Amino acid sequence: MSIAAADKTTATETVPRAGRRWRLGGLRRLILAPLFFLAVMVALEIGVPLSGVSSMTMVPPSAVIEALQQHYAILLQQAVPTLKEVVMGFALASLLGIVLGAAIASSERVRQALYPNMVFFQVIPKIALAPLFIVWLGVGTPSRLAFAVFIAFFPIAVSTATGLSSTSRDALRLCRSLTASPWQTFLAVRFPYAVPYIFAGLKVGVTMSVIGIVVGEFVTAQAGLGYIVMFTSSAAETALALSAILLLCGIGVGLFLLVSLAEFVVVRRLGAPIPAGEFA
Amino acid sequence: MADATIPGAATGSAASGRAAWLVNAALPWILPIGTAACVLAVWEAVVRIWSIPAVNLPAPTAIATNFVKTFGTLAYHAQYTGAEAVGALFIAIAVGTVLAGIMSASPFMRDMLQPNIVAFQLVPKVALAPLFVIWLGIGSESRLFFATFLSFFPIVVSTTAGLQQTDPTAIRLCRSLTATSGQIFFQVRVPFALPYFFNGLKISATMCVIGVVIAEFISAQAGLGFYILLASSRAETTAIFAALVMLCVIGLAIFGAVILAERVARRWYSG
């Protein structure tokens, strides 16, 4: 069903513009972006040495790859704690966020009481609390983990609550007229309808948990890729800093793709059988 | 809800019916504020009863006292943080909307840039903060551009989505009425894209403050991020919280300004 809906949207998008050049447009869409990325890299590769800036300021991409190869042992060694903490932080934040989101959506009164406060918390710059977590939990893993959970769970909780409370009213009425218990309604209707919202929150959350751990490593400066970035950049070893950033990007994108894969699997198994729009 | 209480009120006294209706109408306001007040009260009580040292967790009243006492210092630091955040947001709006306009006007540019921008969204851009200091020095520029860098992506992505999702029927109608593409852009696409633009802007409004604070953690001689780091190195937790209150004020002021701008823009376009 969702595939059919996706087909419908792409059809309306492409028909008025491309017409019979559709095939060419599809190909262009696939290769233009990587080509552009490649062009930027080539421009950096040629332009950086030509411009004569020192290797402290900027280095060509090849130097970053070289630094990655040269120091890959230490970089990988530092990547392990970062990756571990990011995954643990994300898992905790997901659990906490989904449970709290479900609690918020469980009753109208609870929702009214908590939701505006959650949105308020979303708006304030929580990053500024990072040094406080060190005061509370020391400079070790617990403080970074707690900080990552703290900033990653809000988007998950808010979107879970939104998803659970945006079930179609007609579907809920149908359940009631079929004498479904609230728990049955939750499992069979409300939760499947909320799955896309929950995953939207999880996708934001996974990026936030990487950010949380990296900022934590900036502030505590003990180990991890964030510490390497901080240390090497203050020593003006830009190539090494950029290669650590490259690894961090790999972690961020890799985890995001994993969440997207999980979404694909879960939506196939659990996804709402009827698109919300068809009830209206 | 209101319907249910009014018939019951007719049998009782009219005054109590109105009171019930008022309570129901005010509940969406009372409940969240009441919850926040309860949390603060519990916090205060816990700190006092167990006499938790202020280094670990200061009481809300102590934070308020500290905030009032150091207001001058906080305002001095807030002025840098606030100015840099607002400046960054304005640059982000300018760059973001122009880029979104270009991408919606030219399918070529869109196919070329959009996937790269979306991919960049996933990258932990925060890790680049120290590099901005290397590139731009420890002055205001590095913080300004880092905050711009963080806050312009949401604007580009959501404005582009908005400009693309214009109702095709409306565009066909305009074309059949021989509107130029410039007219279509400003009179159809832009109003359609406004809600999307403001959605992105709301995210950016929080990101720009976050960007400035992170950059201040790394390099600054002034600003609330600097003040927080300094206070934490002296273990003055109360001062950290007071600075945080100031940061919230800045964040909420910028967010409120965005909401206000959204109202004005929507009224302008619907009128």
TrEMBL record, chain A:
Localization per Swiss-Prot or TrEMBL: Cell membrane
InterPro entries given in the database record: MetI-like, MetI-like_sf
Protein's membrane topology: Multi-pass membrane protein
Alphabetically ordered keywords of this record: Cell membrane, Membrane, Transmembrane, Transmembrane helix, Transport
PROSITE patterns (UniProt xref): ABC_TM1
Domain ABC transmembrane type-1: 79-257
Keyword NADP: no
A biological process term (GO) from this entry: transmembrane transport
Segments passing through the bilayer: 30-50, 86-106, 118-139, 145-164, 197-219, 239-259
GO cellular component terms, A-Z: plasma membrane
Endoplasmic reticulum found in the keyword field: no
Family that this chain belongs to: Belongs to the binding-protein-dependent transport system permease family.
Protein name per the record: ABC transporter permease
Automatic annotation (TrEMBL), chain B:
GO BP: transmembrane transport
SUPFAM superfamilies: MetI-like
Subcellular location field: Cell membrane
Every ABC transmembrane type-1 domain range: 78-258
Residue stretches spanning the membrane: 21-43, 85-105, 117-138, 144-163, 205-228, 240-261
Keyword 4Fe-4S tagged: no
Pfam family, one: BPD_transp_1
Keywords: Cell membrane, Membrane, Transmembrane, Transmembrane helix, Transport
Annotated GO CC locations: plasma membrane
Keyword S-adenosyl-L-methionine on entry: no
Membrane topology: Multi-pass membrane protein
Highest taxon listed in the record's lineage: Bacteria
Homology family: Belongs to the binding-protein-dependent transport system permease family.
Protein known as: ABC transporter permease
Protein species of origin: Acuticoccus mangrovi
